[in-house]
Amino acid sequence: MTTIELRRLLLDDLADIEEIERRSYPTPWSRSMFAGELAKPTSICLGAFEAEGENGALVGYLIVSRYVDAWHVMNVAVDPEHRGRGVATMLLERLFDLTADDARRGYTLEVRVTNVKAIDLYDRLGFRSHGLRRGYYTDNREDALIMWKDPVARD
Q1: How far apart are CA 17 and CA 117, in angstroms?
Q2: Is residue 27 part of a domain?
């Protein structure tokens, strides 16, 4: 297995982010949407990079926005060739590490009701279902499952 390093995403990573996004979602985010999140001081934008070589390739990313009562997981994607190797789990666990001192905010996300693999991942990481957003996805009007996780407490 490839060794993965996690680091904050930079504007220089936008082309690689867009490539993974297009390969992952039927209605991908635009470059300006990613650039906006990367520029916000209240966002956490992490990339998973192959550790081999001078310029390790981006294989996955996580975009999270801070709100009053929650960290909203806005976008998680892993390059299709690297799925099933724990990259998304690593990214989310790093998020929990970075935000563990924030006892006021839990975590929330929306996920397609048909995305069983993602729902299983979120369940394993402590997210629980808290309702539906009917017709949430614009490409096919699919419902989104709303999931929440309580704040992570430091030991």
Answers
A1: 21
A2: yes
In a domain, 10, yes or no: yes
Using CA atoms of 89, 149, 39, 79 in order, give the dihedral in degrees to the nearest 10: 30
Tell me, yes or no, if 5 is annotated catalytic: no
CA dist 43 and 109 (Å) reads: 14
Q: Is the dihedral of CA 7, 12, 16, 20 positive or negative?
A: positive
Q: Model confidence over 19-60: pLDDT tens digits?
A: 999 999 989 999 999 999 999 999 999 999 998 765 789 999
- 73 lies in which domain range? 4-149
Q: How far apart are CA 45 and CA 34, in angstroms?
A: 9
Of the residues 18, 50, 93, 110, only one is catalytic, namely 110
Q: Is-catalytic flag, 122?
A: yes
Query: Can you read off the two tokens belonging to residue 152?
Result: 């992570």
Q: What pLDDT score was predicted for residue 2?
A: 66
Token pair in block for residue 1: 């297995």
**Strand 128-133 versus strand 106-112 pairing type:** unpaired
What residues contact 77, with CB distance under 8 A and at least 6 apart? 20, 21, 24, 25, 60, 61
Q: How many domains does the chain have?
A: 1
CATH of the domain at 141: 3.40.630.30
